[in-house]
Amino acid sequence: MRGGSRWNELHGTSFGIDPIVAPAGDADYATIAPLMPDELTPRQAADRIGATTRSVQRWIVTGRLPARRVGGRWRVAIDAIDALGTSDSAPRAGAPPASTGLGEIHRLFVANRGEIAARISRTCARLGILAIVPQTDGPGGLNLLDVGRVVEAARAAGADAVHPGFGFLAESPAFAEAVDAAGLIWVGPPAAAIRTMGDKGAARRLAISLDVPVIPGYDDNDQDNARLTMEADRIGLPLLVKPAAGGGGKGMHAVRDRARLADALAAARREARAAFGDDRLILERLLEGPRHVEIQILFDAHGNGVHLGERDCSIQRRHQKILEESPSPSLTPAVLDRLGGYALALARAVGYVGAGTCEFLVDDRDRAWFLEMNTRLQVEHPVTEAVTGRDLVADQLRIAAGEALGFDREDVRHTGHAVEVRLYAEDAEAGFLPATGRIAALRWPEGPGIRVDAGVELGTEISSRFDPMLAKIIAHGKDRDEALARLAGALDDTLVLGLTTNLRFLRWLVREPAVLSGQARIDTLERIWPPDGWEDRAAAPDAAWQRAARLLAGTTGRAAATGSAAATPWTGGWRTNAPAAVSVSAVSVSVDDVVRVVRLDPSAAVAREAVPTADEVHVDVGGRSVAFRLASPPDVDRAARSALAHARGGAGGDVVAPMPGSVLAVHVSNGDSVEMGQPIVTIEAMKMEHVVAAPVSGLIGDIAVRATDQVGRGQILALITPS
Hints:
Elements: H1 4-10, E1 39-40, H2 42-49, H3 53-61, E2 67-70, E3 73-77, H4 78-85, E4 107-110, H5 114-127, E5 130-132, H6 147-156, E6 161-163, H7 173-181, E7 185-186, H8 191-198, H9 200-209, E8 217-218, H10 225-235, E9 239-243, E10 253-255, H11 261-276, E11 281-285, E12 291-299, E13 305-317, E14 320-326, H12 333-349, E15 354-362, E16 368-374, H13 381-388, H14 392-400, E17 417-424, E18 426-427, E19 433-434, E20 437-438, E21 441-443, E22 450-454, E23 461-462, E24 469-477, H15 480-493, E25 495-497, H16 503-509, H17 513-516, H18 524-528, H19 534-538, H20 542-562, E26 573-575, E27 578-586, E28 594-599, E29 610-612, E30 617-621, E31 624-630, H21 636-647, E32 654-656, E33 661-666, E34 673-674, E35 679-685, E36 688-693, E37 698-703, E38 710-711, E39 716-722
Parallel strand pairs: 4-5, 4-6, 6-7
Antiparallel strand pairs: 1-3, 2-3, 8-11, 9-10, 9-11, 12-13, 12-15, 13-14, 14-17, 15-16, 17-24, 18-19, 20-23, 21-25, 22-24, 26-27, 27-28, 27-31, 29-30, 30-31, 32-39, 33-35, 33-38, 34-37, 35-36, 37-39
């Protein structure tokens, strides 16, 4: 934490407004724990001898400085702090806050998991710092959303500092304050900066005060639905509804039809409450076809700030990024200078310290609008590292330890071009819905200019509990063409089997003309994906069926030898004077999986990449892991329903879960008459909602789930008798 008056005196601001200098909670606490006449708060004690608040808190926690705890707050005797201030082990009164040096960080607690935890650990290893990554899976796993337990775990591990990574508590001002209060070094900006910039409404109002353009919208505290509806009418359609807290695209809803506004407001509130614990909303006019450009900044605790250039993140799905690159293929130097100035002004205004990112929308006339500030390390930071040669995690640690930046904008050198894609456990062909499963085969690419930041390994179980990002694949080249060519080759060399990922989609994306031309906008993907004929191009070829059948035939043979019930006439067998045949099912989202009787032909071509698991075979089909299993006997009831639907010229009436998750709401009852497209069930997974609609019109014959039930992908939710 930075003390108020002392921080102003040392650093101030040159932008004509008072900086936000101290986090809420770093005041005198008089209303919480009254001071005795001979006592000081840690902040007051730090100001008295010219130390930092963090140093005083660390002395208290380690026993060097006597203190008492009142109402959850520390109280320091004036005599004790004066005695310490005249010793050789503390700064003299009136001296500027001393730089602790990176040597003070010996043990870093990483309050995160997966890819970013591995990324931070790599830098720590290079710097000689012990990275402590907590266990988050299983019965005894640490809940990364529990502030108290995370801080307790960091102290129990003997950590000097805490790095929040991204997601979870990374942008929680309460977490930053708790880390400071525990006497640990917080690798991030002051809590006040997090609080102001994490509130999109407050950030918009700050931007306006600094003459930074913002998108027309509504960001006030009156959250009554009637007021929001009135403001939506004032702003006009198309409209974007989004949470005032949080980020990552969660809870954002585009409204193009006035009749859908009420549903969008309700859904955005639910998702915001679930994801961020805050259901406040803001409204913005939805801009059509802009570019999404962000500026990476670094600020030290001495008031020095610099921006490291831009990243273009225009290629998105569901308001979430998929491909990021640096430099932007279409940003002029003049616009970059303008955006860099905006970012630095915003950061200085809140007393920012550390790494952060300001995000903007830019239209074809080079007009720009501020969106938000992410007060943490961004997922896409590797592309900036690739073109600047900097290690942003190392920069964060040095800044947190009190070191000055030691360079300015003129010292930043940009070399070549870098592109990053995010490998997700999701089904791009089913609306980018999240997928689950165990990684049964894994291969990462290598080669010049290729970097992989991964948070998974062979055997990792991917659940719906965490974000579906598995890894980031980054390519750097002398120019954009070389970077994209290297990335395409790297994706071709990547293999993930055992669960559905977006790898096949990514291979298509980096070769798509709209991407290669550098003209992609935030709405480009929804216009070009999926391309015409994609379903036929993506279908499993005969070679995949043949490879699966051969491996499954071995399973059948083993089952027959052991007397298992799996060896039935339906699943396959040998025929006199004919090749063996196996009835194989290709597992899909639909309950009615594709079934083939495959003749085992020794001369037939087979797929190269495949791996058997307990009861399935996973085959690589152009980058997609397709699961095959021995077909089950026909379901008489399902066959009857299918026949009835066919006789009536309609589709089947099974309502199935398109993804794993929790049932949030059931919108119908048994016997209800429903129309095709009417909401039947709402499922929530990874803090996002998905409405499952009726595939046909008819009568609800059976509802198989209720609210709070956990469902798997492909599970029947309800049955409809087609009308």
